[in-house]
Amino acid sequence: MCGIVGVLGSHDVTPVILGALKRLEYRGYDSAGIATVHKGALDCRRAAGKLINLQEILVREPLRGFAGIGHTRWATHGAPSVENAHPHRSGPVAVVHNGIIENFQELRDELTAAGANFTSDTDTETIVHLARSHLAEGMTPLDATHATLRRLEGAFALAFLFEGEEDLLIAARRGSPLVIGHGSDEMYVGSDAIALAPLTDKLTYLEEGDWAAITRSSVQVFDTGGKEVDRPIVKIALESAAANKSGHRHFMAKEMAEQPSIIQKVLAAYINEGSGALTLPEGVQFNEIRRVVMVACGTAFYACQVAKYWFEQIARIPVEIDIASEFRYRDPVLQHDDLLIVVSQSGETADTLAALRHVAGQVRQTLAVVNVPTSSIAREADVLVPTLAGPEIGVASTKAFTAQLISLLLLAVKAGVEREKIDAEGLKTLMSEISTVPGLISQALDREQDYAQVAQKLAQSDDVLFLGRGVMFPMALEAALKLKEISYIHAEAYAAGELKHGPIALIDNTLPVVIFAPTGALFDKTVSNMQEVMARHGQVTLLTDAAGAKLACDVQNVIVMPTAPVVIAPLIYAIAAQMLAYNTAIARGTDVDQPRNLAKSVTVE
Ligand code: G6P
Question: Which of 186, 208, 235 is where one domain is finished?
Fold first, then answer.
């Protein structure tokens, strides 16, 4: 994880680097640091905690220089302290790193034996000591970097800065993304295009194993063997991450509120207004696919879990889903007529990207449902379905999740049509139900008071149990994940029917149990499970529609959700999952947008 940036500027670069780090803070906020070269001298400022702490230090101790590198950290090796903050420096070389150096212990032992003085617990520090030792042998910065890279095992994106070199940045990429930005008389490197968005729209993406020597007037890219290679400059139109909360207390609140308009935008993009026909990106022949394999992490995995129901029920196509960090290590059986769908907000999640690469040549096609269209996953998949949610800043995913859901639902309908599993009448009904999603989400958002009331109770508890059946089971999982992420309350989710096989032992008169149960085929069965909880004095909150509330009139707390057709209900109840977590976090006073220990984009395994 971590965000890295480098700038060769035409004036002092510290403010430019700070701006880029702000845009990269979604990758981690355990510590931050900047190094520059000024009048030939290398200097560095670092601070533990969020970027604001570094900004305060820079007010007291400004850092001058037209060349610099910066870093925002998500700790892997070593606590989030100043000593472990990047840039790391040894003599004339400083480096910022995103990734993990797997052979760092071996290198550290070797370098220590040779007299290197380590001042941090990080894997990264080995890189600067190695580079310094090669410089001491008389190598040029370029040769010293190449020799250093050859010794490193693991995943990394790196930017090097050298004492005495005010017109040189060296960047390297293996396993972690890195992009070079071309400005006018300025050059940049960054972990992603978003970091560089306000600076330039002309980008060169480094490929696996590439490393580059960058000056203000030239870029030389080399492959792993040191052979110079040609990498194109592409022009990217990018929405800069919205910098303000538009009057909302948190980015998460703003992003939740945006959901009706984002869903509307997705529908407008993927459904022809006149004919009503689906206009999703082409490239997959669903009638030639025998199985869909879906892989993702976190919230995106729960989107897959919902989509499994949709693809199976609407398109009658078998679906397997897997958590990306498990997928490739169990050596999955893949077939040439499989379609792999990966789902990711950032498009940079290391395990999801690795899953995509793992299936290359083994499946018929790969399709990415991704929010960041310039990301590695978006660029590497055969077919891209952008989810169009716009930049998501809050670490807890909200609008990106519902945008994933609606995109996957439309894909399932497309698959159903192509496989001739839906007749014209069925399709008409389905599309008319789908068109009601934005309005129903607005109504679900309007129940703020109800969510806040229940949240007051959840905030008093150390544990919460969420239950649901069918598509409401993934909603229960998502609700538990959101609550854990931002309120730090332990929460678990179970398929309601599974309750009696273990978790029922947890129930007493102190345990809040939140049940997602819209009316429909599974309502009565879920209500039976709810009765089992109530018989043991569990503190039940039922989320259902008006008809459900009437039928379950003996429940202590009910949130009456908008009445929604079964197929789109997950999109509506997702709002409740988000709002309950958000209001509980507010009641607990936690850091909603940047919860402890988390990062928005997880670029390490
Ligand atoms: C992190 C984020 C989650 C996200 C997951 C997958 O854990 O905190 O919100 O769901 O990564 O990220 P992706 O970008 O692949 O959707």
Answer: 235
Give the domain CATH number at 89.
3.60.20.10
525 is catalytic: no
Residue with token string 């330039």: 200
∠ at Cα 389 (291, 203), nearest 5°? 95
Order of strands, edge to edge, in the sheet holding 41-48?
41-48, 31-38, 67-73, 3-8, 187-190, 179-182, 202-205, 234-235
**Rounded average pLDDT over 541-550:** 96
Angle between helices 399-418 and 569-588 (to 10 degrees): 170
Q: How far is ligand 1, taken at its centre, from the CA of residue 401, in Å?
A: 10
Whole-structure pTM value: 0.85
Catalytic residue among 2, 44, 297, 304: 2
Q: What is the dihedral of CA 128, 130, 135, 140, to 10 degrees?
A: -90
CB 355 within 8 A of CB 328: yes
Residue 596 in 3-state DSSP?
coil
What spacing in Å lies between the alpha carbon of 304 and ligand 1's midpoint?
13
In the chain, how long is the greatest CA-to-CA distance? 82
Does 124 fall in a domain? Answer: yes
Question: Tell me, what DSSP letter sits at residue 241?
Answer: P
The answer to whether position 228 is within a domain reads: yes
Using alpha carbons only, what angle is made at residue 85 by residues 79 and 86, rounded to the nearest 5 degrees?
Answer: 140
With H, G, I as helix, E, B as strand and everything else as coil, classify residue 58: helix
Residues 406 and 264 in one domain: yes
Region of residue 2 (phi > 0: left; psi between -120 and 50: alpha; otherwise: beta) = left
Give residue-wise pLDDT tens across range 569-589: 999 999 999 999 999 999 999
Domain finish residue from 235, 255, 285: 235
Query: Do residues 181 and 162 both lie within one domain?
Result: yes
- Measured on CA atoms in the order 22, 24, 26, 31, is the torsion positive or negative? negative
Contact between 343 and 404 under an 8 Å Cβ cutoff? The reply is yes
Cβ–ligand 1 distance for 404 under 6 Å, the answer: no
Which of the four pLDDT bands, split at 50, 70 and 90, describes residue 94?
very high
Closest by alpha carbon to 370, among 349, 351, 394? 349
